[in-house]
Design goal:
Length: about 140
């Protein structure tokens, strides 16, 4: 069950903001992360909406884990947020190397509570007929 404090979580390759302040997400990983060959160099960005459970400051830690190894930790302070309002969290452009089939997981802790899983994606080699493996357009 998804944590209600994080109603929207998207893992993608690229995140930007347009001239009106709207977020632009590109290369969204809607399923597993398929690669043409292993090892593979990957780039991921996370976009998450956080709904504050109470008024005040909220210390959020995002933990990126490849298999059983933490590869990046990011601390974010959502300062002065009112209960029930949303804050957007993003960690752009995280590059890493996946040497074998594994799982990429992103966890969050809020105010040092127990971590919750935001997203988990299996990283695997695409089947030989898949466009990623063949290099042909979709």
């Amino acid at each position: 069950m998804r944590d209600p404090r994080f109603p929207t979580v998207v893992l993608c390759e690229y995140l930007a903001r347009d001239t009106y302040g709207k977020h632009l997400l590109a290369g969204v990983y809607s399923g597993d992360i398929l690669v043409g060959a292993l090892p593979a160099e990957l780039r991921v960005t996370i976009y998450a909406e956080f709904v504050a459970p109470t008024d005040g400051d909220h210390k959020i830690e995002l933990i990126f884990r490849l298999g059983d190894k933490d590869i990046v930790k990011a601390e974010i302070l959502a300062a002065g947020v009112r209960a029930g309002t949303m804050a957007v969290l993003s960690v752009p452009g995280l590059g890493f190397m996946a040497s074998d089939e594994t799982t990429l997981s992103v966890f969050a802790t809020v105010n040092q509570e127990a971590p919750v899983v935001l997203v988990q994606k299996k990283i695997s080699k695409a089947p030989p007929s898949h466009p990623i493996a063949t290099g042909l357009p979709f």
